[in-house]
Amino acid sequence: MHALKDIQLIKHSSYINGSWHSSVKSLAVTNPATGELVANVSNAGIAEVELAIESAKDAFTMWSKKSANERAGLMRNWFNLMMEHQDDLGRILTLEQGKPLAEAKGEIAYGAAFIDWFAEEGKRIYGDTIPAPSNDKRIVVIKQPVGVVAAITPWNFPNAMIARKAAAALAAGCTFVVRPATQTPLSALAMAELAERAGIPAGVFNVVVGDDARGMGKVLTEHPDVAKFTFTGSTSVGKSLISQCASTVKKVSMELGGNAPFIVFSDADIDAAVQGALASKYRNAGQTCVCTNRILVHKDVMAQFSEKFVAAVSELSTGNGLTEGVTVGPMINKQAVSDVQKLVDDSVEMGAKLVLGGKIVQEGSCFYQPTILANVSNDMPIAANEIFGPVSPLISFANEEEALAIANDTEYGLAAYFYARDIGLIWRIAEGLEFGMIGINEGIISNAAAPFGGVKQSGNGREGSKYGLDDYLEIKYLCMGGIR
Ligand SMILES: NC(=O)C1=CN([C@@H]2O[C@H](COP(=O)(O)OP(=O)(O)OC[C@H]3O[C@@H](n4cnc5c(N)ncnc54)[C@H](OP(=O)(O)O)[C@@H]3O)[C@@H](O)[C@H]2O)C=CC1
Ligand SMILES: O=C(O)[C@H](O)CS(=O)(=O)O
């Protein structure tokens, strides 16, 4: 920790109503690269969640009555502080989550970009006037903030997944309570420290840290004072949270699992496709919901693509994310490593061919070798499941109909990618893929200006872009009568 310029960014307790709340119990935050203790943090629970919701409710009138300009000014302060402290925030993130420092700093900039984007977007929450059916009436439509927003976020992007939600919520005039993943609370608490320094008033942005995910989640999804619930995480957990929200008919948005196909057509730029697959697959050690999960290659270019892709993956350097030059960090924990190992072993059993890697780097660690499997079929576990690890399954196809059929043969529909140059093929495939986001000759597609989200069992709603505000607003229809 001594490497931090501003040690005050390391906070050890939940941030509720503008104060730091210590609890008797504590939870240990450990570094997945070394297993070493990073920090002990107060282990809050249901009582703190209820207090945070009450605080957010109390702050809502004040916050929602501020002008969009006033809210934007405070959010701008927050953005500036996040960028000013990008190095420290990146280092904290790498220590608790493991991704290489360069990626972690990139995540800080990515998260801050949402604060920057929505600070401005909040000024453009327009309504409508609608010609009335009779001349004694006037119809006006206004948009108003939904109220208190509750969020549960994952460990794989412990800064950006919070920023992507909180920025839209605050810009809309909502107040916000987030319960971050147990394994990565420090990034969320550092965001709260900077929100306080930015002048964001007490009760507007609250972070409650605790390992009772189920109990805390029950309050966040069922409390009558929470107007909207937003979640990023696995589809299985998302489903149970959606059902918990039903009891109070909350607005819900879900960013869930994925199984992204990466399709290389015979007319693709193979070198570009190799670089795109490398970036999309091995970012965050493959632990992102939009990571390439299956690589479909036209049979005529499979040999050429495989040779170049194996060479590129062989160049990846696995190690501690704080070490200069490391490009693939550890996985989040040992369970994640064994889950991936099982997918690899079971698929090899079914006929997949191990071309590169395929095992843990060092017994007892969280490091898994960048891996490539060939001769994979879509029914094998490595293709049918979301891998969430640094493994590339290669699947061959003969024509565009077969490519689409394989790509769409999944309950997920978050991101898909393909490389091709024929404009007719590009449009047919882009329109035929059943996914919410499509990278065309591009492997990295996430940014604050674009609507992030999926279809099928990858979730609902969109985050980022002008569309990202809608989930935090209610439409109100005003009908004015008696006007002659
Ligand atoms: N769509 C997306 O953007 C993302 C999707 N994912 C998906 O999540 C999976 C891996 O991430 P992982 O963190 O394990 O996902 P989980 O869904 O297990 O966890 C996500 C968050 O939900 C919390 N949580 C878990 N169970 C419950 C529950 N019953 N009630 C309330 N909260 C709960 C977790 O808390 P705790 O940490 O304490 O367990 C964590 O904060 C992958 O399948 C991946 O697809 C992950 C990240 C992003
Ligand atoms: O949760 C995730 O995996 C992120 O949403 C991926 S991204 O937004 O950083 O692409």
Could you explain the architecture of this structure?
This is Succinate-semialdehyde dehydrogenase/glutarate-semialdehyde dehydrogenase. The protein is α/β, with parallel strands linked by helices. It has two domains: 7-256 and 458-477, Aldehyde Dehydrogenase, Chain A, domain 1; 260-447, Aldehyde Dehydrogenase, Chain A, domain 2 (3-Layer(aba) Sandwich). It contains 14 helices and 20 strands. The strands form five sheets. The protein has a seven-stranded mixed beta sheet with strand order 14-15-16-13-12-17-18, sandwiched between helices. Helix 2 (68-84) packs antiparallel against helix 5. It starts with 13 loop residues before the first strand and ends with a strand. Residues 156-157, 160-161, 232, 288-290, 446, 452 line the site of ligand LO4QSZO4.
Distance between the termini: 71 Å
Which CATH first-tier class of the largest domain would you pick?
A: Alpha Beta
User: Could you give a short account of the major beta sheet?
Assistant: 7 strands, mixed
CATH topology descriptor of the largest domain = Aldehyde Dehydrogenase, Chain A, domain 1
- Count the domains: 2
- Rg for CA atoms: 23 Å
Tell me the strand order in the biggest sheet.
14-15-16-13-12-17-18
Spell out the CATH superfamily of the largest domain.
Answer: Aldehyde Dehydrogenase, Chain A, domain 1
Strand content: 15-25%
